[in-house]
Amino acid sequence: MNDSRAGELILKTLTEVLIALGLKLNASKTTTAQAVIASSIKMDKREWMRRRQSDRNLQKHLLLIHAHGTDFPNGGSLLIALDQFYRRLASRKSVHNPMQLISIAIDIGYNSPRCFPTCAAIVSKLLSKLPTKKEKLVAVDRIRKRLDQLPNNGHLEVWLQRISYCFSPKLTYGDKLCGLVEGKKMNLWNDSWISDTGLKRTVRPNIIVNKKRLKVLRSIVSRAEYALLRTY
Question: Domain coordinates of the chain in residue numbers?
Answer without folding.
Answer: 1-40, 42-171+212-227
